[in-house]
Amino acid sequence: MSVVEETYDVIVVGAGHAGCEAALASARLGLQTIIFTVSMDSVAMMPCNPNIGGSSKGHLVREIDALGGEMGVNIDKTFIQSKMLNKSKGPAVHSLRAQADKAAYSMEMRRTLQNTDNLTLRQAEVSEIIVEDGKITGAKTFSGATYHAKAVVLCTGTYLKARCLYGDVIEHTGPNGLKAANYLTDSLKENGIEIYRFKTGTPARIDGDTIDYSKMEEQFGDERVVPFSFTTNPEDVQIDQVSCFLTYTNEKTHEIIRANLDRSPMYSGVIEGTGPRYCPSIEDKVVKFADKDRHQLFVEPEGLNTNEMYIGGMSSSLPEDVQYEMYRTVPGLENARIVRNAYAIEYDCINANQLYPTLEFKKIKGLFSGGQFNGSSGYEEAACQGLIAGVNAALEILGREQIVLDRSQSYIGVLIDDLVTKENHEPYRMMTSRAEYRLLLRQDNADMRLTPIGHEIGLISDERYNWVVTKKKLIEEEIDRVKHVNVGARAEVQELLKSYNSIPLDHGVTMADLIRRPELDYDKLAPIDTDRPDLHYEVRQQVNIEIKYEGYITRQQKQVNDFKKIESKKIPDEIDYDDVPSLRIEARQKLKALRPLNIGQASRISGVSPADISVLLVYLETFNRK
Amino acid sequence: MGEFDTICAIASAMTNSGIGIIRVSGDDAIEKVDNIFQGKNKLSDMDSHTVSYGHIVFKDKIIDEVMVLVLRAPRTYTRENTIEIDCHGGIIVMQQILKAVIAQGVRPADPGEFTKRAFLNGRIDLSQAESVMDIIDSKSALSLENSKNQLFGLLSKKIKSLRESIIYEIAFIESALDDPEHISLDGYEDRLLEKVKIIENDLKKMIDSADNGSMVRDGIKTSIIGKPNAGKSSLLNLLSKKDRAIVTDIAGTTRDTLEEQIMLRGISLIIMDTAGIRETEDVVEAIGVKKAIDTIDDSDLILYVVDSSTKLDENDKHIIEKIKDSNVIVLLNKSDLNSLVTEEEISDMVNGPVITFSAKNGDGLDILEDKIDEMFFSGILSDDHEIYITNARHLNALTNAYNSMANVKYSIEMSMPEDFLSIDLMEAYTQLGYIIGESIDDDLMDEIFSKFCTGK
Q1: Among A157, A432, B151, B227, fewest CB within 10 Å belongs to which?
Q2: Residue B439 has what pLDDT?
Q3: Which residues make Cβ contacts (< 8 Å) with residue B172, sequence separation at least 6?
Q4: CB-CB: which of B126, B180, B426 is closest to A622?
Q5: CATH code for the domain of A333
Q6: Domain B150-212+384-451: CATH superfamily, name plus number
């Protein structure tokens, strides 16, 4: 009997948001890459919320784009509404969020995969990984075919041993009724990989024709849309946008939920997985925040060619009949018809502490993983890990140094460091508060931070790289200039200040001093800045931010310098923690299990104290002198 | 935690006699100390291993006459530039000099840090490495011991409650940033400003108390003991009511407050078991005496109240036997009544002054204050070296936290967006965490998810 047997450089398992980025990165770096999906109709599928970005997630998308990933480009082509969130707050927390046409998003990504050289897209369920002497050599599919490869990237999302639940109904499928992948988990366990079980959930989709929008508040997109991708021409994204709608639950809704809690698998104990605290089901909200008499709901379109509306804020695993009852208590949904039920989904994933920050398994050389499989949540979190895993799989095969972004460089670095270093007991969502240096990690400067790295990797063109270099230079020159331009109390100056309710000058100041005034900014001062060069919008924006928030930025930069000091102290691979005297037992166990790459990472492991770090530093010095 | 920033510590024993030494080590040790040194030459101009005579001057005030030793790298213990300031000793002076040095941006050293640097910089050979680790180890064990100390418990309780109110605000801001469509920050800055002022004020009080040397231990653990009806609670009331004294409920709840802090002439006394003092005025004698005796071992200072209008009895003898080795001040109370107990009768039996006193009209209170003052400044009621070092770090952390709160206030005044506020709030939270040895880890996430309903 002959079976199918093929050879590639890289195998990517799963074609969701992580898998697509991994496969594209690997193929674009010149490696023969095959990507498997359980269904050709689920490439880059969005099984939950119909949007890309949002607070801190928008940052991730910009960073993916700055490194040469696809997500930003893809959403720019397929969005139907866009908003910059937190515009009244500081620039560090401005974040883009776009509503996607889900079907178009998926189709466009599929087209991109198909049109990429070195990339093969294949529908099949991967059921086994092949490991020889601690090194990956390939994978097998359920159909019995063998694929040889030098690296495998696991991006199985929520499909491993997935089951969907509402009320007492249990469907053994992945999201949206797609086939679950039931075999791979066992193969992973046989190879010593530790498996966790997580859960998440999604609200119902309701027939838009049965919604009375007049009872809801209409939510429009921004007048001037900012694209996600640094490569998108801003003029190309000024489209006719569709609206979302805001409505609320009420006491009636909450009563129905409370009366039926015993029928929720979450509360009856049927669900074993750990759910995320940040996107609680409506049952959780009603129970945990009993004092709130209403909860906000966002009614969002799923696309231009479907009547389905996503009811954001009301995910649930209550039975079908209760779902009807509770949705219909909401103003505007009195006559709602459900198109798809809300459900909770449970799936297998891993303890990501088993990974290096490169996203390679410590135990199995050549095996990488990214996305929800690593215990994260969200399309953007998945995509950025997929990108890093795909890049590093390729770099390893090419014999080049792999990349690790650190916490002071990017949200991606924060996310991966958290996943591989800290204990994670729920699906991990990115939040701006997780980034301790967020003032430097703005969405507006993602290209300055990361495009040089993307260029180094080989995913960014020379042209794009050169613009970043030029931009940097222009910004520095202009900052220097405005700091040295003196402004006197001339009539036109006083006039301009008055028009912005700004206190008139009684002595000379610099242009930079004026930019710092809360009611003023760089652009507003153009009329009195006669020698100002004609600069690109991106340059002007950076000059404004860097000047306005200089004090804070300098303080944060100082923290980063301290951080870099301990982050640069490498821990040698061959260190044996049993040889380090005076380490406390808990610290010793954690360090042995995690094997951090440097002192910085070691210091972030819970259970490792500053005294342990001191001991470790002294030991390393001894070690290095030997 | 920079690995090789400049550090300082008191290097001599913490006694009030002889010479005190403050050591500073790091690249810019010499420049930093130059900022507060006035002498014939600048320290930066001096050769290595020379001594300069001069004064330490901080905020336009001469703190002490000193000899300063300039030691340039690498011929020093740590192989870094090192300064040794020899002063006239005395806890307060050493502490003030240390504070002046810290104010130049020098960090108080961690336990064993000078030795650790000596090793990391190659000054000590490998065979000594293990003993270095033992030092680090034993010092951290000691600070653990510290945290079990009841006094530290008081400070720690205060710090914890400050941290709780700070993290609540951060969590609120952060959940609004993460979920702007659900949580609004309209009008929030005014509310925050009020809170910030309260926290700032609390921190300031703690920092100020350090200026007169009392913060060192957050207070001298003091027991008021005596038989029922000797006048313990009248004494407590008298001390509490004095308008010069600041009284705070330490446990934070009013009903079952067990300790109260009282400031007398800048010295902080922690009066232990205040509920017990009031309660035992009403109970049978034996129980009252037993309760009193239970607190003796834990106390730095005992105020023994004797009812001089009745004769000493078995219970008094019992108490006197227990306190004969402690620091005691005996108060012969009810001097306004006919005295049946004399100073001579009792002063032979205890180790401390005896004061004729009236809790009723306040006679003798000044003498009591004088005595406490005297005992504190003569070192009888001082702290040992290790606890002092820990506290220098506490003060540093408190000062940093205070500065961060000032930054928050400034940012609010400058109408900075809310995300800038949480940066400095977080810094204050982290700094206060150093005092009680807690890091941030997942505090913020837990607070956000438990207090605010956020998410899709």
Answers
A1: B151
A2: 60
A3: B183, B188, B451, B452
A4: B126
A5: 2.40.30.260
A6: tRNA modification GTPase MnmE domain 2 (1.20.120.430)
